[in-house]
Write the structure tokens for this entry.
Amino acid sequence: MVSCFPNAIIANVPECPYGWEIDQLSLGGVCYSGIHSPGYYRFSIPDLTPKNHSYCGTQSEYVAGKDPKYIFSNSIVSNDTTLTVRNQPVNYTFSCVYRAAYLLNNAVFSQRVATVYVNNGSLGTFRSQLSMNVFTNSKFLYAKDSPYVIDTSEIGSEVFIGIEAKGLSNRFRVVINNCWATPTPYSTDKKRWSLIINSCSSDRTVTIFENAKDSRSTFKFNSFRFQRLEKVSTVWLHCEVQVCDAERLVCQPGPCSSRSQSSEPEPRGGILTAEFHIKAVDPSNNGHVTGTSLFLLLALLINTCCYLVTG
């Protein structure tokens, strides 16, 4: 049984196929990551676009045409390291097919830069690079190098974020639906701080400059820290983004005053993730930069300033 989810694939094979135990079966011949569930061995592919483009041997293929598709495939195979083979070999090959338009709206990318395929009607399918960057100021002319570093002395400073799609015509607009920060790389982490909810600023520390007007959307926020997470020195910013066809759809969000800002909005786009490293100056180390013992996140609440200064 194979389940094809927007961000993951789960394959279940019968328990002990031809006598093989769970520790003798591997995903893609690489990962012995099976989990024993009643009657089945379960193998999961939690990331369809990892940085190395091959999670546990997962292969991906883009098929162009009138209805372009993505195909992700892998296999669960047996591996007996004993001198003699006593069980019949098994090779469960499986695949999931996604429409490219579906991936655009429910995108399976989770990194700072992603490649998306956009259908432009009779003009064909275009390949675009969608990226999220930190800029030096509100003019959004110069992007900072990645990975991004925030010094503890800069807590409260403004962080300028730009999300841009390249290689598309003017009819396509980049829409930021939601943005939030977590202390782990996982966008689903329950420990999170919302910055943008349903295309609206979560509070007055967040300013949205442009959204859904052209191929780039921009905003800024101030930095703050998560409390009681003292050993963490890396943080992640996640933004759920859509590429909208303005000739077919209404891309511009309505006024925030007339819309509800749900605390847990329904996902409608793909997620871009940027990684930030928090550094501090250690007085005992003659000013050399070291990892801070405090976890400093990316947007500062005004009422925590005094706490940070005195603490």
User: Anything to note?
Assistant: The longest strand covers residues 234-245. The first helix runs from residue 100 to 105. Confidence is low (pLDDT under 50) at residues 103-110, 283-311. The CA atoms of residues 53 and 59 lie 8 Å apart.
